[in-house]
Amino acid sequence: MSVLDNWDKWKDFLGDRLNQAKQQGLDQNLVNDLAYQVGDYLAQQVDPKNEQERVLSDLWSVASEEEQQAIASVMVKLVQNNGTK
């Protein structure tokens, strides 16, 4: 089962990566930029595996670049306290 198949596992995965990035000293702007790049990659290359991912994919597809940056930033905030570490 892929982390993309389950929304909670996906959030935990992202939370773990976010915690690692912060421990490595990445600043918030760089984290948000990386989140935008990941979101853009997922939107173009990965078929959504659940309803939540489908909503994000649909929103991403109609959003301007500025709005996509905001979506990425909100996803970072969503997973900030998630993860296993």
From TrEMBL:
InterPro entries for the chain: DUF3243, Uncharacterised_YmfJ, YmfJ/YflH_sf
One Pfam family hit: DUF3243
Protein name: DUF3243 domain-containing protein
